[in-house]
Amino acid sequence: MVGRALLSVAIVGGGPGGLGTAIALSKLPFLQVTLYEKNPEPREADLLGASDGVKGGSKSNTHQRNAYTGNILSITQHPENSDADTRGAIRARRTRLQSALLDKVPEGLIQFNKKLVSLEDLPGAGVRLIFDDQTDAHADLVVGADGIHSVVRRVLLPDHQLRFTGNTAFRTIVPRSRLAHLPDITSTTAWWWGEAGHVYFSDVDDEKEVDDPYFEITVRSYKEPDIPGKTVVWGIPATKEKVASRVSTFDQRVRDAVDAVHEGEWGEFATFAGPRLSKITGWDKIALIGDASHPLSGAFGSGATFAMEDGWILARALEHSKFASHPVEEALEVFNVIRSPYYARMYEHLDEVGAKMQQFKAENNDFDAFLKAKIDSFLYGDKSFIYKNDIGKVWEEYVASLPSSN
Ligand SMILES: Cc1cc2nc3c(=O)[nH]c(=O)nc-3n(C[C@H](O)[C@H](O)[C@H](O)COP(=O)(O)OP(=O)(O)OC[C@H]3O[C@@H](n4cnc5c(N)ncnc54)[C@H](O)[C@@H]3O)c2cc1C
Fold it and tell me: Where is each FAD-binding domain found (predicted)?
């Protein structure tokens, strides 16, 4: 870009993907980056209301249990105890991650209260962004980081439809002390698996840093009735009675833990998903990243990581293409070539696991055996392409594969 005007980049959405992308792109001196976020402030609703630099919870083992009998089906040691991977598994509140990312975004780069409603393709002149406050903006490159219900994706691909998966999460965090009297609830991270749902228990605070750390309870229900009008149900309050009804046949310990949550403390999150996109770029000037690019509703519990990886690769692609005659077009091509197959692999993996489990269920009546098979395929099948993905190495390998590098 030597001797040329700066390229303007508009990032839509200030979740982990948008913030991660803003950090990566703002380090490139030939870009002028602006992030537009619809919310009036830089965080999603924190169930606790605090976000003061606490790290996260990292129990050294995880229990998998039968939700009705409490029978322990497996115990996993987390990587922090192994020589192979010293990073460890940490559960932290999303607001902590948001705050940490926000700290690294250059001041003045984010505009709040900017809800994108549409985009216009301006041939030869970039993209016009149209906001709900009747204002607009222009950019050479638009990054759609606006989550699973992405407006950017809807404009690019109007026929792409999301559907309610039937799977709803009821989530809360409560002071751990409130559950301390219940046997086997707070001592480990644990999943209690049932037929039509499961319950997940986990620390979310680093107990060395907080006097009374918070503890997450998520009740997942797999067979919720369809949502009329397919409206987004995300973080709305759920009653105690509603959540209790989803675990009424579960082990007493689980029911007692769910009962210890006060009225008004549960949030309900309905998960939506949609088919894979064959391409995660459009108009030669738009990139979709994070949940906007692979609407899977948190299927791997790592969506924030995928979104940040997207942003980092996009930055490398832009840097790599900066002297090209059409730098944005070329960078998007590189970005798509690297990230699309990665998401394709995820979709394939989910299809394979789903088919395998259906077959296992048809052939086996024993519930514990079924659960063990499910846990094996969901938690211990080969997911190294996800959990050990070294994005720096991916980039090096891509560069090495180019004809000019040989
Ligand atoms: C129940 C559940 C549990 C999960 N658990 C985990 C987990 O443990 N670990 C993990 O890594 N991931 C988890 N995920 C997935 C994770 O939350 C997402 O993958 C991740 O947040 C994706 O980041 P993103 O930046 O792409 O999108 P989002 O986080 O959805 O951010 C999108 C941003 O865009 C803004 N926005 C939306 N529309 C507009 C608009 N029109 N104009 C301007 N701004 C807009 C939003 O306000 C928001 O700030 C979970 C998901 C679900 C559903």
Answer: 132-319
Tens of pLDDT along 341-388? 988 888 888 888 888 888 888 888 888 888 888 888 766 556 677 767
Per-residue burial over 170-201, b if 16 or more Cβ lie within 10 Å, else e, is: bbbbbebebbeebebbbebbbbbbbeebbbbb
290 lines ligand 1 (CB under 6 A): yes
| Parallel, antiparallel or unpaired: strands 214-221 and 266-273 | unpaired
Q: Is residue 291 lining ligand 1, measured as CB closer than 6 Å?
A: yes
Which tens digits make up the pLDDT trace of 279-335? 999 999 999 999 999 988 666 667 888 899 999 999 999 999 999 999 999 999 999
Locate the domains of the chain by residue range: 7-46+95-162+275-405, 61-83+163-273
Atom of ligand 1 nearest to the CA of 169: 1
**Looking at the domain covering 7-46+95-162+275-405, what would its CATH class be?**
alpha beta
Specify the CATH number for 61-83+163-273; select among 3.30.365.10, 3.30.9.60, 3.20.20.70, 2.40.240.10: 3.30.9.60
Q: State how far Cα 383 lies from the chain centre.
A: 16
- Distance of CA 186 from the midpoint of ligand 1 (Å): 27
Kindly tell me if the per-residue pLDDT of 50 is higher than 60.
Answer: no
